[in-house]
């Protein structure tokens, strides 16, 4: 901090309560912003920025897939939901050097489990971290850190290339989870990164919530 050996300073919380031996235990919970000041009532020289992490209530995710979300413009909502799911596969296969394969299967055979919509592709696959990023609500595909989709930042679709091949058919970019909970009650993502022998599986379900 560049503090001279003979200089006095205090550490306070944002309410200007000085951190002492008596209240130090309050910091164990984490998430507390601290000021390093010369005096507790010192005027701040500039505005401060604080990052806030929060976990939305699960209803925010589960109920956002209701009919009204996709029918807000008076259109049939199902194509919107399917477009969000297919968009993930378009992103995953966008750099394929060979054939891009995307299959949509509607499964109704009770012997194989509950009815399901399966979107299967031969894309690059996702690591466990990328699966984690996909699960975070309101984390846009254009701003995900450490995700293969983050390279879409600043992306402009070339005119000769059909929109349906460029992973911009979805309206929102964060709608995959809303689409899941519009169509059904859970999502199961099974993925094997192209450069790895490991298969990663992720389940997001209303029942687990």
TrEMBL record:
GO terms for biological process: double-strand break repair. InterPro entries: HATPase_C_sf, SMCHD1. Gene3D superfamilies: Histidine kinase-like ATPase, C-terminal domain. It comes from the Eukaryota. It holds the Pfam family HATPase_c_3. This is SMHD1 protein. It comes from Crypturellus soui. The gene is Smchd1.
